[in-house]
Specification:
Largest sheet of chain A: 3 strands, mixed
CATH class of the largest domain in chain A: Mainly Alpha
Strand order of the largest sheet of chain A: 1-2-3
Oligomer: homodimer
Number of helices of chain A: 22
Low-confidence stretches of chain A: none
Shape of chain A: elongated
Structural class of chain A: mainly alpha
Mean pLDDT of chain A: 87
Radius of gyration of chain A: 30 Å
CATH superfamily of the largest domain in chain A: SLC41 divalent cation transporters, integral membrane domain
Order of helices and strands of chain A: HHHHHHHHHHHEHEEHHHEEHHHHHHH
Largest interface: A-B, 112 and 113 residues
CATH topology of the largest domain in chain A: Tetracycline Repressor, domain 2
CATH architecture of the largest domain in chain A: Orthogonal Bundle
Chain lengths: ~450, ~450
C-alpha cells in the first residue's frame, strides 16, 4: 500500500508540478513522500517539497530524507519557507538541520526563528552530535512536586502544542531538581486529587549530557524505557531522549559498524554519491591492501630460491592466506561483538586473558582439523614428497592459532586505546595476519624441506 | 552506578546464598540482576534466581538473560515456581520461553498456567517466531466505537492489571474490526463526554500476522510509531507489536547480519559456548575456504610450468587475491546495505542494471588507479622485464572490475531467490572471486610473457 503511494508521487513529480501532484502529496504520509524523494532527480525533489502545503508534513519530510538530499533541498529553499518549516520541526531535528547549514545562513536562521526555539536549538547544538545532549529533546512534560494529578492534566492541556511524544511526566522539586517520574497512564488511573509525590517513581535512571549515544541506547533498551531524562550536574532536567530517537541511533550505529568493517566509509545510497566519490571512499582500505600486497610480494621474493626449486609451494599461498584471514576475521568479529554487548571489557585484564586463551584453543582445534585435511590432501597428491604434507600441516596449524590470537587481541587493544574496535575486521588485521602467515609457511617449508 | 550493583550481586552470589544476597537482589533492578547472571557459574546463577522474592522481578530476569542461561536455569527450576514466574511474564516473553521447553514439560506447563494465558500463548506460538504474529502482544487496550473518553478511562482502570506498555487505545466497531486509534494523551486532553469516534485517527497502519519482523521494524521506525497493530484478514485486531520489542528485533537482526557476514553462526557470548561448539560453528565457512584453497592450489598447479620459469609471479598472488577479495566484499556490503534500506530491489531489473553499471564503473576507476600504482612498482622493481609490469597492470584492472561486478550481483541474486543477501559477503563469494582472479592473472601473464 505505501509502495503504490510512493510510485504515484514519483510518476507525478517526473511529469512536473501541478495540482495533481499537490493533491497526491496532501493525501500521503510524509514518510512516504520522503521515500519517494530518494528516487527522484534534484529538480523533481524540489518540486515535491514545494508542493507540500502542510508545514508539519514538510518538516517531517525534510527531517526524514537522507542527509545529502536534505543539504541540496535546503540550499534551494526560499529563506521564509525554510524558517517556517524549521519552526514546525521537532527541536532535535531542527538543531540537526541548522547545524548542517553554512555558517552565514545558520546565523541568519537562528536570528529568524522564535526566541524559544533559538534557545532550545542552542541548548542542543552546544553538545557533541553523538552525545545525549546532542540528541535530546529539551522540551519535556514537567510538573512540580506539590502538584496533584488534576494540576498535571491541566498543565498537559496548556502545553499540548509544544510537546511531542509524551509518555512520562517529570516531577521537579523547588530547586528544579528531578525527583520522580510518572506515566500518563498513572494520571488516568489515579484520583485527580492524588499528589504526584505519592504516585511517582522516585528511583529514576538518568544520564548526563556528555553520555555517548550508544550508552543511551544501551540503557533505554536494557531497561525497556520509552524516554531517558538528561540531567545536569545538579540533577536539573535538561531534556529527554525518546525511544524513537534511540531506534535511529541503533540503526545508525549498526550500519556504521557494517560499513566500517568493509571499509566503505559512509557511502549509503548509490543514487547519492558520484562514481568518483564512491571510489574515493573505498580507496583507503584498498590502498592498505595494495601496500600490504607489495610487502607480501617482497616477502615472498625472499623465498624465491625455494620457489624456484619447488614451484608447487606457490599453489598453497591462497589456502594459507585464506584460512589465516578468515579465522582472524571471525575471532575479531566475536571480539567486536562481545565488546559491544559489554561481555568483554568489564573484567579488565583477567577477562582478556581468559578470552584470549579460549580463542587460542578454538584456533588450535580448528588448526589441527585443517592440518589433518590439508595434510592428507597433500600427501595423497604428492606421494613422493611426504615432508611437503608434514610442512603444510604444521604451517596451517601455527597460522590458524596465530590468526585467532591476533584477531582477538587487535579489537581489544583498539578499544583500550579509545578507537572503534570495528576497524579491526578490516585490511589492517588481514594484512598483518597475511605477513605472519607467509613467514610461518615459507619458514617451515624451507626448514623442513631443506630448500 | 548499575555496574557497582552488578558487582555486589556477583560477589555475594559467589560467596553463597543467604539473606545478604536476597537483600541485594530486592534492591536491584531485574535487568542488572540479569547482567550479573551472565558473569556467574551455573550453580551461582540458580542461587541468584532462587533468591529473588518478587515474582515480577524474577519474570523480568528470566526474560532478559541469554537463551543459553535461560534454558539451563529453567531446567533446574521447581515446576510450581516456573509456573508462577511464567504467569508474571509479558505474554510474548512467556510464549518464547514455553516454546523453548522440551515437549513434555511444555504440555504440562500449558496445562498449569491460567486459561487466559494459555489462550494468548497459543495465539503467539501458532506463528513463526520471526513474524509479526510471533512477536506480538495479544493484549491490547480495546474500546468500542460507541464509547466516550469517560468509558475508555474506566476501562483502563479495570484492565490495569493485565496491560503493559499502553500508549494507544484501539477502537473497534461492532464486527470487532479495527476502525481507529487514539492516544492516552488524547484521553487526557479531551472532555470526558467526547466520543472516541470523534477524536480517533481512522487511517491506521496495520500488518498481518505473517509479516516478517524486519518489515514490522521498518514500518515502526519509518513512521515513528510506538506500537503497530496486527490484524487478521477481516481487519480484526489480533495483537500489537510494541516499540521495545522492535528495538530487540533491530538489534537481533543487526547482530545476525554481522555474525553471518563473518560466518560465526549465532555464537554470542564466549562464556556460554564450549570451545568445541565454538569451533563447530565457525568450521562451515572455513571448510568452504579450505576446499576453495585446495581448488586454488590445483588451479595454480596448471600454471606450474610458468611459475618454474618465472618464480617471481608467485609473489603477486597475495596482492591480486587481496584486491579482488576486498573490492568484492565492499561491493557486496554496499549491495546488502541498499537491499536492507529498500534502496535496491524496488525498481526491479532496471534498478539492478543501473547499480551494476555504476559499481562496474567504480571498479574500473579503482582498477585503473591500482594498475598504475602496482604497474609502476613492478616496472621499477623488475626493470629488465617491462612486459611483467604491463601484465600485472592489466590483470589487476580486470580482476578488480570482475570483483566489483560479482560482489554486486551475488547479494542481488540471493535476495531474488529469497535467501539472506548478507551471506554474500562470506567465503563463497571470496572463493569464487579468487578463482576468477587466478585465472585472469596467470592467463594474462602466460599470454603476455610467452611462458
Amino acid at each position: 500500500m505505501p509502495d503504490t503511494r510512493v510510485e504515484i508521487i514519483r510518476r507525478l513529480a517526473r511529469k512536473g508540478a501541478g495540482p495533481a501532484l499537490e493533491r497526491a502529496l496532501g493525501k500521503s504520509r510524509p514518510q512516504d513522500v520522503a521515500t519517494a524523494i530518494a528516487h527522484l532527480a534534484p529538480a523533481e525533489q524540489r518540486r515535491v517539497l514545494a508542493g507540500i502545503a502542510d508545514l508539519d508534513d514538510a518538516a517531517t519530510v525534510l527531517s526524514t530524507v537522507d542527509d545529502v538530499d536534505r543539504v541540496r533541498l535546503v540550499a534551494h529553499l526560499d529563506f521564509e519557507r525554510l524558517v517556517s518549516i524549521l519552526e514546525h520541526m521537532e527541536v532535535d531535528d531542527e538543531a540537526d538541520l541548522i547545524a548542517e547549514l553554512p555558517v552565514e545562513l545558520r546565523e541568519r536562521v537562528l536570528e529568524a526563528i522564535s526566541d524559544d526555539d533559538q534557545e532550545h536549538v542552542e541548548d542542543i547544538m552546544g553538545w557533541p552530535p553523538d552525545s545525549a545532549g546532542g540528541i535530546m529533546q529539551p522540551l519535556a512534560f514537567r510538573c512540580s512536586e506539590s502538584d496533584t494529578c488534576r494540576d498535571a492534566i491541566s498543565a498537559l492541556h496548556e502545553q499540548a502544542e509544544d510537546l511531542e511524544m509524551v509518555f512520562y511526566l517529570y516531577v521537579e522539586n523547588d530547586q528544579e531538581q528531578l525527583v520522580g517520574v510518572a506515566s500518563l497512564r498513572q494520571l488516568l488511573t489515579h484520583a485527580p486529587s492524588t499528589a504526584l509525590k505519592d504516585m511517582m517513581i522516585s528511583d529514576v535512571l538518568t544520564v548526563g549530557p556528555m553520555t555517548d549515544q550508544e550508552e543511551v541506547a544501551r540503557i533505554v533498551s536494557r531497561y525497556d524505557l520509552l524516554a531517558l531524562p538528561v540531567v545536569d550536574e545538579h540533577r536539573r532536567l535538561m531534556g529527554i531522549v525518546t525511544i524513537d530517537d534511540v531506534l535511529d541511533v541503533i540503526q545508525e550505529e549498526a550500519v556504521e559498524d557494517m560499513l566500517l568493517m568493509a571499509g566503505v566509509g559512509d557511502e549509503l545510497d548509490p543514487a547519492d554519491t558520484s562514481v568518483i566519490s564512491a571510489a574515493r571512499q573505498r580507496i583507503t582500505w584498498l590502498l592498505i591492501t595494495l601496500v600490504g600486497g607489495i610487502g607480501m610480494a617482497e616477502l615472498i621474493g625472499v623465498f624465491e630460491g625455494a620457489l624456484e626449486k619447488q614451484a608447487v609451494l606457490a599453489g598453497f599461498i591462497p589456502v594459507i592466506l585464506g584460512m589465516g584471514g578468515n579465522v582472524g576475521t571471525q575471532a575479531a568479529t566475536i571480539a567486536v561483538r562481545n565488546i559491544a554487548t559489554g561481555h568483554l571489557g568489564t573484567d579488565g585484564t583477567r577477562g582478556t586473558a581468559k578470552v584470549l586463551f579460549r580463542e587460542t584453543r578454538v584456533g588450535l582445534l580448528l588448526g589441527l582439523f585443517f592440518a589433518f585435511s590439508l595434510g592428507t590432501y597433500t600427501l595423497l597428491r604428492w606421494m613422493d614428497q611426504p615432508m611437503l604434507g608434514a610442512a603444510i600441516a604444521i604451517s596451517i596449524t601455527v597460522t590458524v592459532v596465530a590468526a585467532a590470537a591476533i584477531g582477538t587481541m587487535v579489537p581489544i587493544t583498539l578499544n583500550r586505546l579509545g578507537a572503534d574496535p570495528a576497524v579491526a575486521t578490516g585490511p589492517f588485521v588481514t594484512t598483518g595476519i597475511d605477513a605472519v602467515a607467509i613467514v610461518i609457511y615459507f619458514g617451515t617449508c624451507v626448514a623442513m624441506l631443506g630448500l
